[in-house]
Write a structure and sequence with these properties.
By secondary structure, the protein is an alpha/beta fold. Helices cover about 60% and strands about 15% of the residues. It is built from 18 helices and 10 strands. The longest helix is centred in the first third of the chain and has 32 residues. It starts with a helix and ends with a helix.
Length: about 500
């Protein structure tokens, strides 16, 4: 009997302990799940994706901006805005530069491997846009073998690569460049999200562009959130559900799109990751910071070295040919800057001041987009890049030539003339050889500058090193590894060039 009592007493104690432990665990899990949100979060948005986000009267407005602000007000946290290029959003979320991002970001399986998403807040799809007077392209089937403009790092760029046979994809950093390339004839069509194409036609391109074919590949937009922020994902989803229930979402949709939201706009199910949210303490934060140092896949860069090497080839090609053109222009206009003839001096000065007084990026955009509209035919991106580097470097080389020639003592010219040489021959055989030696150091410096200036040519699709790096990083979400490798490429080239120039300089001075 005593044994039986002892057995039941032990069983009761064990059950009591188990219940206590279970309640404690539930309390702990509930505490973790209800971890408080931060007071404020940093969110990234795109530079321009009308009508979702764009700059108006000095501040960014749009459907996305209103949605994220409404969600923040409902969830009870403040927002700090950061504006970046679209292809920099996901790398920024990965590296912790941003907590959230709203920029018409399509929810894809590949992206969900790198970041988390909220529930969908907008249903979209891709549409083809062609010049208003084009009757040959009627659907996506007619794009085979054509040149199609789209945005760097977008789902439409992936669609072109995977689904349109033989099509060449012109991927631009900004959407306005994609539309402009169609207008100028550099691209046959544009493929992008239907809301943006429709908005562009309605506001800017009514007589320039038209949409053709059916809506392709229905897509959901979601608010992108950095990994391991489950409590923030839950809070955003809850707040989104609230603004849809209370009519706020409908009001914003009607304000920006002029119609009621479609009945199927509500998501069928949550896409947030499972598991309770965890608010890290100081120890976990320190561990997280340390883990960031080893999270990058540096060995994976090896797979992309051929593409980066191809980019380096074009970087050097554009730099070398551009500098040759620049030296020819610089010699002519540099001598023109010391001419006594006012017309020659005036034209030479105008060239130098114009090219030195405007940014290389503006010159590239003007040569590639605007110049074809004036001359009546397209300029290939590579040729345009070489022309830009040649024109720009020529202005600086002109000043190098002028300074070097004027630094030669005046007595040298007089000595040549006293030997019976004409002014032209004295310049050729007496002044120029001495001046050329003095040009070597600044010319080498200009070559290095021109190599780095080619990085700006990615905006006009020159497939140089930066362009290749950005293309890889935006498609595979490995910006840190790729851009670090790109920096090493540039460093090796410039250091090697500096060493060679030092050797040449020493030999010429001895």
């Amino acid at each position: 009997m005593n044994y039986r009592r002892s057995f039941f007493a032990g069983l009761a104690i064990t059950a009591s302990l188990a219940m206590t432990a279970g309640l404690s665990a539930c309390s702990s899990g509930e505490s973790e799940a209800e971890a408080p949100l931060e007071d404020s979060y940093t969110y990234a948005t795109d530079t321009s994706f009308v009508p979702f986000e764009f700059k108006k009267d000095g501040e960014y407005v749009g459907f996305d901006i209103d949605i994220i602000n409404a969600i923040a007000d409902e969830a009870g946290f403040e927002l700090k805005q950061e504006v970046t290029n679209f292809d920099g959003i996901i790398p920024g979320l990965q590296t912790g530069s941003f907590d959230l991002a709203v920029a018409g970001i399509s929810i894809t399986d590949e992206r969900k491997e790198a970041i988390d998403f909220s529930d969908p807040y907008y249903k979209s799809g891709l549409i083809v846009g062609v010049p208003a007077d084009n009757d040959d392209i009627k659907s996506v089937d007619d794009l085979e073998g054509k040149t199609v403009a789209t945005r760097l790092g977008s789902t439409s760029a992936a669609y072109i690569k995977e689904n349109i046979k033989g099509a060449e994809s012109n991927t631009y950093e900004q959407l306005d460049q994609a539309y402009l390339s169609v207008q100028s004839g550099s691209s046959d069509a544009v493929l992008y999200d239907q809301p943006n194409v429709a908005y562009y036609i309605r506001t800017e391109g009514e007589d320039k562009l038209k949409m053709v074919g059916d809506l392709l590949e229905a897509q959901d937009y979601g608010i992108a959130i950095s990994k391991d922020n489950d409590n923030l994902v839950d809070a955003v989803n809850e707040a989104m559900g609230t603004i849809k229930d209370n009519g706020t979402y409908d009001d914003l949709y009607k304000e920006w799109f002029g119609e009621e939201p479609p009945s199927d706009s509500a998501p069928p199910q949550a896409l947030s990751p499972a598991g309770p949210g965890v608010s890290p303490g100081p120890a976990l934060l320190w561990k997280d910071h340390m883990s960031r140092l080893t999270q990058f896949n540096w060995l994976g860069v090896v797979d992309y070295l051929p593409a980066l090497a191809a980019g380096l080839y074009y970087t050097l090609l554009v730099s070398v040919i551009g500098l040759i053109i620049g030296f020819a222009l610089g010699a002519v206009f540099g001598l023109g800057r010391i001419s006594r003839k006012k017309i020659i001096y005036g034209l030479s000065s105008a060239y130098v001041e114009l090219l030195r007084g405007t940014p290389v990026l503006v010159q590239a955009i003007w040569v590639y987009f605007a110049l074809p509209l004036i001359i009546g035919f397209n300029i290939p991106s590579l040729a345009a890049g070489i022309l830009v580097i040649g024109l720009n470097s020529g202005a600086y080389i002109a000043e190098i030539v002028r300074g070097a020639v004027q630094s030669v003592e005046k007595g040298q010219m007089e000595a040549g003339r006293s030997l019976g040489l004409s002014q032209h021959l004295a310049m050729r055989y007496v002044i120029w050889p001495q001046a050329f030696k003095r040009m070597i150091p600044p010319l080498g410096n200009q070559f290095i500058i021109s190599i780095k200036d080619t990085s700006l040519l990615s905006v006009i699709l020159v497939p140089e090193l930066i362009f290749q790096g950005r293309l890889i990083a935006s498609n595979h979400f490995n910006a840190v590894e790729i851009y670090t490798t790109v920096a090493v490429f540039y460093l090796v080239v410039t250091l090697t060039l500096s060493k060679v120039l030092n050797i040449v300089e020493k030999r010429l001075t001895h």
